[in-house]
Specification:
Layout: E1 7-18, E2 23-27, E3 32-46, E4 49-52, E5 57-61, E6 67-87, E7 90-91, E8 100-103, H1 106-114, E9 127-130, H2 136-153, H3 163-166, H4 169-177, H5 185-191, H6 196-207, H7 211-229, H8 234-240, H9 246-257, H10 261-268, H11 271-280
Antiparallel strand pairs: 1-6, 1-9, 2-6, 3-4, 3-5, 3-6, 5-8, 6-7
C-alpha cells in the first residue's frame, strides 16, 4: 500500500514559562500549535469547552481554530507552531474539530530543551527562549520526535486524499512556489502541458473549487502567516506578492478573512516573538 508523503515545517519552537499574565482571550493561528506541558494549571477554552493542560501531555490545536488560553498561577511548556501538509494548503489536521491530546514522558519534553543550542533562563517567570537544535544529529532527533508525536495525535478516522487529488501535486507545488496575486491559471496549465479549460474542469471536479479560488485561499493563508511571523509592512508584502499596492492587498485580505491585515496582526501575533523581532532589527 502506498501512502502520501507529509511535509512538516516548524515555524516556532519556544520554551515558555509564565505566571497569571499568561492570559490571551483570542488566538487564531494559520498553523498547528502544539503544546508540550511541563507544569502548571493552564487551560484552553474553545467555545464553551474547557481543556485543562495536564503536565506530561501534548495538545495539538488545529490551524485557524479560535481559542482562549490562560492560567491561574503558573504555566511551563514548550509550544511548537508547525505545518504538517500532504499538499500545499492541505494540512493533515486542517479538518479536525477540537483539540487532540496524548500523554508524553517528561524526559522527552526535556530532551527538546537539552538538545537545543539556546540556554534556558533560570529563576523567576517569565521566560521565553527560542529552541533550535544544536547539531545535525539533534536536528534528526527533533524531526523524528515530531513525526512520532504527530502520528499519535492524528485522528483514528483520518483518511488519505484519493489519487485524483494527489495527481495534482506537481501543479500545487508550482502554485506554492510561485504564489502571488499575479499568478494566472493559463501560465500554470502551460507549464504542465494542460489546456487551460481542461485543467479547470479537472481541478473543479477533484477539489470542488476553481484554481482561482484555491490560489486565493492559499495566498490569503500565506499572508496570514507572514503577518504573524514577520514584521514586514503591508507595503512590503504587497510588493513581495505582486499586488498593485498596499491598498489592493488590504482589500483582498479583508474579502478573504473578514478583517484588515493590520487588525489580524494586532490580534494574532505572538507578543513575545514580536518583541524578539523588534530587538533583533
Amino acid at each position: 500500500m502506498t501512502f502520501p508523503d507529509i511535509t512538516t515545517k516548524v515555524i516556532h519552537c519556544v520554551y515558555y514559562r509564565n505566571n497569571e499574565d499568561w492570559n490571551y482571550p483570542i488566538n487564531i493561528y494559520p498553523y498547528n500549535t502544539l503544546y508540550l506541558v511541563l507544569d502548571g494549571d493552564g487551560e484552553i477554552l474553545i467555545g464553551d469547552h474547557i481543556i485543562s493542560l495536564l503536565p506530561e501531555h501534548a495538545y495539538l490545536i488545529p490551524p485557524n481554530t479560535q481559542f482562549s488560553c490562560k492560567c491561574s498561577h503558573y504555566i511551563e511548556k514548550i509550544y511548537i507552531d508547525l505545518h504538517a501538509e500532504l499538499l500545499p494548503g492541505l494540512d493533515i489536521f486542517g479538518a479536525m474539530n477540537g483539540i487532540a491530546s496524548v500523554s508524553i514522558a517528561r524526559d522527552e519534553i526535556l530532551d527538546v530543551i537539552s538538545r537545543s543550542s539556546n540556554p534556558i533562563s533560570a529563576g523567576d517567570t517569565p521566560a521565553f527562549t527560542v529552541l533550535e537544535p544544536s547539531s545535525f544529529c539533534d536536528k534528526l532527533w527533533y524531526d523524528a520526535f515530531l513525526l512520532k508525536l504527530l502520528s499519535l495525535l492524528i485522528p483514528e478516522n483520518w483518511t488519505s486524499p484519493d489519487s485524483q487529488i494527489m495527481r495534482h501535486r506537481d501543479i500545487l507545488d508550482d502554485i506554492d512556489i510561485n504564489l502571488s496575486a499575479a499568478l494566472r491559471m493559463s501560465e500554470i496549465a502551460d507549464r504542465h502541458g494542460w489546456h487551460p479549460s481542461t485543467l479547470s474542469r479537472a481541478f473543479q471536479k477533484d477539489f470542488g473549487c476553481s484554481i482561482k479560488t484555491y490560489v486565493e485561499k492559499l495566498l490569503s493563508a500565506r499572508l496570514c502567516q507572514e503577518l504573524v511571523t514577520t514584521d514586514k509592512t503591508i507595503k512590503e508584502l504587497a510588493a513581495q506578492y505582486h499586488f498593485c499596492d498596499a491598498y489592493y492587498l488590504s482589500a483582498f485580505f479583508k474579502r478573504q478573512e473578514g478583517i484588515s491585515p493590520s487588525e489580524y496582526r494586532r490580534v494574532n501575533m505572538r507578543v513575545e516573538l514580536h518583541n524578539e523581532m523588534g530587538h533583533n532589527r
